[in-house]
DNA sequence: TTACTCTATCGCAATATTACGATTAATAGC
DNA sequence: GCTATTAATCGTAATATTGCGATAGAGTAA
């Protein structure tokens, strides 16, 4: 109890859930939007941009990196983050397939 | 601590996160996929289809209903669930806008 | 009414997530 | 070496999520 039973779902379902979970927090949404907007890489600016403490931002970035959606380059004392384009596109394919499902027949009830 | 600081994010970011959070569990992904596949409405079959206990399925359905992605019709002793098409399309618009962001300029680092 | 079926809700235990202060590690500049 | 700057990690508190047994509620059928 308390832990998700991943083993009873298939790989595709688990992958969709993993991607969705990382988007399930507004801070990570905001981080990604900022990385898209500032097309050059962004470092510690994220802490100023988003109103959360540095350890919290660092933790969110870690999750984004673990899923491969963001990559970070060390540049002196600071770290430069940006969108991992190829992986973002892979994610987009997976999520789009899920979101664009169609109801082949119209419903008769409801 | 321990609670998401929604107030520091804008409505769009919070809405994306809300939609994403509901997709952030494979059981809810599986429920939605099944509802799409069985284009007629589905009732307690979900409990058999997915390997979780009835209270657990009921709870996941509740969350999907609260977000408006699923609607339920009482039919005798059972309840008939189906995708709420209009709301699903609204959600798709919101999520697509987020997923289809573009990097206007290519990155120089990373 | 009684018995049965199906779904929702309650209550709890286990686990996960969020946030941040304090600290550590790594680099840059002197 | 020392100091300043930046980011990662540790540790912990607060809250949220997941799952299910037990129970309640609502409808059907006899």
TrEMBL record, chains A, B:
Source superkingdom: Bacteria
Keyword match DNA-binding: yes
Tagged with keyword Repressor: no
Domain HTH arsR-type: 8-110
Cross-referenced SUPFAM superfamilies: Winged helix' DNA-binding domain (SSF46785)
Keywords linked to the UniProt accession: DNA-binding, Transcription, Transcription regulation
Single GO MF descriptor: DNA-binding transcription factor activity
Name under which the protein is recorded: ArsR family transcriptional regulator
Record organism: Hyunsoonleella flava
